[in-house]
Design a protein that fits this description.
This protein has about 210 residues and is an all-alpha fold. It contains 10 helices and no strands. The chain folds into 2 domains: about 10-55, Orthogonal Bundle (Arc Repressor Mutant, subunit A); about 70-205, Orthogonal Bundle (Tetracycline Repressor, domain 2), CATH 1.10.357.
């Protein structure tokens, strides 16, 4: 049942509808959340909802836009590029792990939403991969190949390295911040540091005697 409409400025209404959509999708999945449910929860008609989001794809893109803005994706990429230019391997993977775990901690609803999208084969999962996954995957793959050519990293399939490195952070973040598992009493920062130490030991060739690690 639609509740009585309340007056709200356009930007505020847009933000309200977006937040309600995110919460609904995160709790019930995409098949269990209809546009009429989102509109009803906001106390407006579906016509009002479609004024703000002309189609479902517009709504999904707006959700990703919101995530991109909150996390400052452009600035984050610049920081990765700076670390890569300095050949700061440990710093780069620390940044990667901190970004992944921090995102799950600060915005679990969004990541539940993405999990639902992946399980349901939903369009948003593909859009998320295009917007967030592929650019980072391509960046990491190029960096790994570069460090292999420079003789620093062991020769191996860079895609496996990339999937392993990202996977350990995602698995830990998902278990802790989506499912409430308590694998370790350590804070996230300490866990990420230990994971990066293990990744570096597996990736980097042993230094010659007399050189720093």
């Amino acid at each position: 049942m639609v509740r009585p409409k309340s007056r709200m400025h356009g930007e505020d209404r847009h933000r309200q509808l977006l937040n309600i959509a995110i919460q609904g999708f995160a709790q019930k999945g995409f098949s269990g959340t209809k546009t009429k449910d989102i509109a009803a929860a906001a106390g407006v008609s579906e016509a009002i909802l479609f004024r703000h989001f002309a189609s479902k794809e517009d709504l999904y893109q707006a959700i990703l836009d919101s995530k991109e803005t909150r996390e400052g994706t452009s600035l984050c990429i610049q920081e990765f590029e700076t670390l890569a230019a300095r050949r700061d391997d440990r710093g780069l993977f620390l940044k990667l792990g901190s970004a992944i775990v921090g995102s799950f901690k600060e915005d679990p609803a969004f990541h539940r939403l993405v999990l639902y999208a992946s399980l349901e084969g939903h369009l948003l999962a593909s859009l998320f991969r295009e917007r967030f996954g592929l650019p980072m995957e391509n960046f990491l793959r190029r960096y790994i190949v570069l460090r292999q050519k420079e003789g620093v990293f062991h020769k191996c399939d860079p895609s496996i390295v990339m999937n392993f490195a990202c996977g350990v952070f995602v698995q830990y973040a998902m278990a802790r911040h989506l499912f409430g598992a308590k694998h370790s009493p350590l804070p996230d920062e300490a866990v990420v540091k230990q994971m990066v130490t293990l990744i570096m030991r597996g990736l980097r060739k042993q230094p010659k005697k007399g050189n720093d690690a």
